[in-house]
Design goal:
It catalyses: D-ribose 5-phosphate + ATP = 5-phospho-alpha-D-ribose 1-diphosphate + AMP + H(+). Pfam families: Pribosyltran, Pribosyltran_N. By secondary structure, the protein is an alpha/beta fold. 33% of the residues lie in helices and 22% in strands. Helix 8 links the parallel strand 13 and strand 14. Helix 6 runs parallel beside helix 12.
Length: 400
């Protein structure tokens, strides 16, 4: 764990507690396990003797929390233990559609609106007793509705203002569609993290013959919106960048958006090269698969798709078919949002685990220690690349 010595010499803000809503129970348990492990490894005599460190090293940091619902569909949040004076971290996944509840005899799947409303219920149940409230929402609620075009709502900005007014001190999210939405609450903490290190780590663990240099690899942005991610990723890896430009039909609207007419490629020759496509999310996956198809037609060797959020809103059939046709080789996505169980059985799927990283963030924030180490992923990526290349070279020498 980075900067362990700084943590050992820092005082915690308050005793740590994690409230994982039902949408993020699996992630909450994994984060809790890492935190227990982290704090057991701390070598500081004050932890054992100083009253200020009371409750510091525990076997469980998850708080007892329930959000029961009535037959009408209404709900309430109930804490089963005291949270007075605690540094409380609320964990919620607004994209978990697998959770259901009964309303007037009908089964209803929870929507992002339902999860957001439950989050507000939990904050209200704190009743001003927690020392500090921090919200970890990996997929930013209404993050794609971040700016106004005509007479329409500004849902994301309004949600951030609402959480601020309810007493939330810090807001943590991942790969926000447009992080400038934090300007809605400029005096509150807003941290936006990206997972390039976890992407390359998962990919290198999966592929033993990947050559990371300009002659063999290129990073592609599927549209102009993801170009910043692609430029950073390619710069750290030391390879070139390419981009697809989406031509849309702005005269019609299908499923709330203008349909894509064609993808135009801007970049260097990709003949025989491995391709990494990087983006923030796979929604239906249509444009991503179309991009992969065009890359294969341009004689790309292998196509790896890296996305922070794998929503797969239209199911996996299109991905199964595209994989069988050889349009892509692997899909790397994080566990920050709910993933359908059947995805884990697909031969093309690779999961990038984010729970250890989030546990580190929580530990640093509980001590009010700088997050610069977490934000600076360049050195970590260079380190894992060096280890991978050394291993690969040895394997090649052995084969020769």
């Amino acid at each position: 764990m980075p900067n362990l010595r700084e943590l050992e010499n820092a005082m915690p803000v308050a005793p740590l507690k994690i409230a994982a809503l039902s949408s993020a129970e699996r992630m909450g348990r994994r984060i809790n396990d890492y935190l227990v492990e982290f704090r057991k490894s701390i070598h500081n005599e004050k932890v054992k003797s100083d009253p200020a460190f009371h409750g510091y090293s525990e076997s469980n940091y998850l708080v007892n929390l329930q959000v029961p619902r009535f037959g009408s569909g209404e709900a309430k949040a109930v804490f089963g233990e005291s949270i007075r004076g605690k540094d409380l971290f609320l964990l919620v996944d607004v994209c978990n559609h697998s959770i259901t509840y009964t309303i007037n005899g009908y089964t209803n799947h929870m929507s992002p609106d339902d999860h957001y409303q439950d989050l507000k219920r939990v904050i209200a149940a704190c009743n001003g007793k927690a020392k500090r409230i921090n919200v970890i929402m990996p997929f930013l609620y209404e993050g794609r509705q971040h700016k106004r075009s005509g007479r329409e709502s500004l849902d994301c900005a309004y949600a951030l203002e609402e959480l601020r007014d309810m007493g939330v001190s810090n807001f943590i999210t991942f790969d926000a569609h447009d992080p400038r939405v934090q300007n809605a609450t400029p005096l509150n903490g807003f941290d936006n993290f990206t997972p390039p290190y976890q992407f390359i780590k998962a990919l290198l663990n999966s592929e033993d013959d990947l050559l990371v240099d300009k002659e063999h690899l290129i990073v592609i942005s599927p549209d102009e919106g993801a170009l910043d991610r692609a430029i950073y990723f390619s710069s750290v890896l030391g390879v070139d960048t390419g981009m697809f430009y989406k031509r849309r039909d702005y005269s019609t609207i299908v499923n709330g958006k203008n349909p894509i007419v064609a993808h135009e490629f801007l970049g260097d020759n990709i003949d025989g090269k491995d391709i990494i496509i990087i983006d923030d999310m796979i929604s239906s996956g249509g444009s991503m698969l179309d991009t992969a198809k065009q890359l294969k037609r341009m004689n790309a060797r292998r196509v790896f798709i890296c996305c922070t959020f794998g929503l797969f809103t239209d199911g996996l059939d299109a991905f199964d078919k595209a994989y069988e046709q050889g349009y892509f080789d692997k899909v790397v996505t994080t566990d920050l949002t709910y993933l359908p169980p059947e995805l884990y059985s697909r031969p093309y799927f690779i999961e990038a685990d984010m729970s250890k990283f989030i546990a580190s963030l929580i530990d640093f924030m509980n001590h009010d220690v700088s997050l610069s180490n977490a934000l600076a992923t360049t050195e970590k990526i260079h380190g894992i690349l060096e280890a991978y290349n050394n291993r690969t070279n040895i394997e090649f020498l052995t084969r020769d």
